[in-house]
TrEMBL record:
It is a multi-pass membrane protein. Residues 264-378 form the GtrA/DPMS transmembrane domain. GO terms for cellular component: membrane. Coiled coil: none annotated. One of its GO terms (molecular function) is dolichyl-phosphate beta-D-mannosyltransferase activity. The chain crosses the membrane at residues 262-282, 288-308, 329-349, 355-380. InterPro entries: DPM1-like (IPR039528), Glyco_trans_2-like (IPR001173), GtrA_DPMS_TM (IPR007267), Nucleotide-diphossugar_trans (IPR029044). The lineage of its organism: Bacteria, Bacillati, Actinomycetota, Actinomycetes, Kitasatosporales. This is Glycosyltransferase family 2 protein. It is found in: Membrane. It comes from the Bacteria. It holds the Pfam family Glycos_transf_2. It comes from Streptomyces sporangiiformans. Keywords: Glycosyltransferase, Membrane, Transferase, Transmembrane, Transmembrane helix.
Length: 381
């Protein structure tokens, strides 16, 4: 399939875009209290989407205001079907809503966009056309590619946060995000056939990031866009949402066993600090180094447990009660200590190492065993 008019794609009058016959689009719009925006949104979609591109609009709504009623009212003037999925249990926030909309979508293409008109509806046909023109299964509307801008991102603070978060995210996932200049964008088109909804674990705002990293679409292309000002109302993003984003990053980064083992090892390494500090304090107080080892180890165990819970296995804690996990974790760590003590005694007694060096060496050599044990015995059902 060849496009006849690639240069025209920047033109807001998108009627010239060459779309092959079967293309149709489900526009998924997450909404949380957007009653002052949805009428204008539907109006602009009606204006922007040419008759040759059949579309349906799917709102996934977690509102506590009258947004669903306003949508149903406004839908009466629309030439396309409009659905409102209202969620009583809003799992996963914005991202969870989007995944629900994607599951319910019926068209070959899905465009995800915000309900506050910061994402111009006039770009919808272009996103689909860009996907049809190329083998791409994912088309990202980007603020950070040539021709795009974040004009509507109010305030130097928000711009700085957005830039910093984009940089951090791109450095954490250099391979998966290659070719995506704006992984934080909430505006994109995706082929329904490349979506693996069951593989996704949406957590908050960054649903494109989730899809790009966990969904692994093979081909990606970008279309520049200008992030507009909000039509009405205020952003629903909060500081809490910022924390949720960090948790999301950690969850994505520790998704593979190899990456988890590296993080596990790094955390284990930091466990030296409380362990050695306690050992120093106890031996300075006159305790023999062997009982001191046992006590000091509990400080390292507590420290490691807390970090590993939150950074490695955050989404795998549901299989056991927390006290069960602490118990098993501590048991493994101390079993490890039991194995380690003869080794330390050997290193100290036979090789003349200092207690601290011997302990450090033994800690490092046993960590793989501990990782495998922790995976299998603490965080699996
Ligand atoms: N269903 C549902 N549930 N919708 C939600 C929720 C929720 O918990 N939270 C927000 N939304 C809806 C809003 O009603 C709006 O339609 C859309 O999601 C975006 O929310 P905003 O609060 O307007 O987000 P923003 O403008 O701060 O952030 C947008 O731009 C960022 C780029 O700067 C989003 O698209 C972000 O994903 C994007 O990174
Ligand atoms: Mn917004």
């Amino acid at each position: 399939f060849e496009s006849t008019v690639p240069e025209e794609l920047g033109d807001p009058a998108l009627r010239g875009v060459d779309l092959p016959e079967p293309a149709a689009v489900t526009i998924v719009v997450p909404t949380f209290n957007e009653s002052a925006n949805v009428r204008e949104l539907l109006h602009q979609i009606t204006e922007s989407v040419p008759a040759r591109l059949p579309c349906e609009v799917m709102f996934v709504d977690d509102s506590t205001d009258d947004t669903p009623e306003v949508i149903r009212q406004a839908a009466q003037d629309c030439p396309f079907p409009v659905t409102v999925l209202h969620r009583d249990t809003p799992d996963g926030g914005l991202g969870g809503a989007v995944v629900e909309g994607i599951r319910a979508a019926t068209c070959d293409w899905i465009v995800v966009m915000d309900g506050d008109l910061q994402h111009p509806p006039s770009l919808v046909p272009e996103l689909v056309a860009a996907g049809e023109r190329t083998p791409a299964g994912l088309v990202v509307a980007s603020r950070y590619t040539k021709g795009g801008s974040r004009a509507g991102l109010a305030g130097g603070y928000r711009v700085a946060v957005s830039r910093g978060a984009t940089w951090l995210t791109k450095s954490l996932f250099p391979r998966r995000l290659r070719g995506i200049s704006d992984p934080m964008s909430g505006f994109f088109a995706i082929r329904r056939s490349v979506v693996t909804a069951d593989a996704l674990k949406p957590l908050g705002y960054k649903i494109l990031l989730e899809m790009a990293v966990r969904g692994r679409p093979r081909q990606v292309t970008e279309v520049p866009f200008v992030f507009q000002n909000r039509f009405a109302g205020e952003s629903k993003s909060t500081a809490q949402e910022g924390m949720r984003f960090l948790r999301h990053l950690v969850g994505l980064r520790t998704a593979s066993p190899m990456a988890r083992m590296v993080v596990f090892g790094l955390i284990g390494a930091t466990g030296f600090l409380p362990n050695l500090a306690a050992l120093w304090a106890l031996t300075s107080a006159g305790l023999h180094y062997l009982p001191a080892e046992i006590i000091a180890n509990q400080f390292g165990v507590a420290w490691n447990f807390w970090l590993i819970e939150h950074l490695c296995f955050r989404d795998r804690r549901q299989h056991r009660h927390w006290w069960d996990r602490v118990g098993r974790f501590a048991l493994l760590a101390n079993a490890d200590l039991v194995l380690r003590i003869p080794l330390i005694a050997l290193l100290v007694g036979q090789f003349g190492m200092t207690v601290l060096t011997a302990t450090a060496l033994a800690l490092v050599t046993t960590f793989v065993l501990r990782f495998v044990g922790t995976e299998a015995l603490v965080y699996l059902p």
